[in-house]
Amino acid sequence: MYTEQLKLIIAEGESLTVEFKEKYTPKIDRDIVAFSNTKGGRIILGVSDDGKTTGETLTNRLKAEILDLARKCEPSVEIKKITRCENLVVIEIPEGGEKPYSCSAGYFVRFDGLSQKMTQKEVRLVYKAAAANVFEEEFHRDFSWADVSGAKINAFFKEANIALGSASPQDALRSLGLAGKDGVKNAGVMFFAKEPRRHILQCQMTLAAFKGTNRVHIYDRKDIQDDLLTQYKEAVVFLEKHLNIRTEITGFDRKDIYEIPLEALREAVANAIVHRDYSMRGTSLMVEVHEDRVVISNPGGFPAGMSEQKLGALSVRRNELVADIFARMNRAERMGSGFKRIREQLAAAGLPFPEIESDSFFIIAFKRPGVPRSTPRKTTQKGSQTGSQTGSQKSSQKGSQKSSQKILEMLASRNEITILELAEALGISDRAVKKHLRSLTLNGVIRRIGPDKGGHWEVTPR
Questions:
Q1: Is residue 410 part of a domain?
Q2: CB count in 10 Å sphere of residue 348
Q3: Is residue 108 part of a domain?
Q4: pLDDT (tens digit, 9 = 90+) per residue, 26-70?
Q5: Domain residues for 450?
């Protein structure tokens, strides 16, 4: 390993792919299996947790002990390389192909800068999900180093409080695990490309503010087609713009308090970016402000093994590399603490925990305080006649309205979705879906752009 690259890695600190140890101990087998179970990584001997160099000597005996530890793991871990760089020892561990791996102390996985022990049940569930979600790890074939933004790299290292020095863009992205000998990974493209969406169409976020509660009348909309950090910042600014604020003055101090704690919303936005399924083409992450609620939805429901009951207790990440970058800037959860903080922030403000739905999308809805869930209808002669309908008729109409609303939400989030996919998601027939689409089209709520095959839907702003 080159000295300059190693200095940059040490300056960046412990992370998803880097672990510091002052001296060798046999307990490093926990980190060896943790890296094998996650994305691979490096153990650097001779560096303290705070990044100070203490030194370690590489001897034949030490090398043999490390290799022996790796062989005793189950299954055996193949150490990629053990090298001496100045007065440090660098152990390189590749991501394993036979997950899950365990050592004498059990199963471990990497979360940010920690190797965390897991139960066997958690390990099976985590890697069942991880095996199907590798989009962020794939190298982008049509992306070159000329497409990388040096300004974005500099801005990130400044925000993460890391000394970049004279490191090249190649060294910077490789040190973060976002690039390799085959080029730049999709995660690197979504963070540091000059024009991310030119390379990954679904790298976008839609911000919308609606009048009323029925998700039809949009009065403010912004499409963010830039990197993931910019998406996060723009979403926070949009929420600040559209939420109500009250001011408390204590002595000489003035404090602005948002109707929904801003910290809870920041956590939810970061969670949506980190856990989104970026392999779903034609989709967009949505942040919506309604009269009665704030809704944040991202493509990709709960990963296997995750549920609403386990939020805050188990962290099953869909995108480890994306999570690592956000964690370095202290903008995302560490080891499942994000939803715990959301719960605490809302409880302190006297607000209920948000409503959560998960199917092909993960949807979290924060109730705005002091606002009714729905807008009352005006009583008219026609309304009085409607009131005399039977309970079954009302139930049928309510179910139909709910299906239409759900279809509208899914079209806004993924405008290329097919009738068959809508039918499967809603549990109704494709004939029923066509009926809802026809009604929405006749009422001017949606319109079809292009042919049946190859075209897309568009929700009509009013």
A1: no
A2: 10
A3: yes
A4: 999 999 999 998 889 999 999 998 899 999 999 999 999 999 999
A5: 393-403+416-462
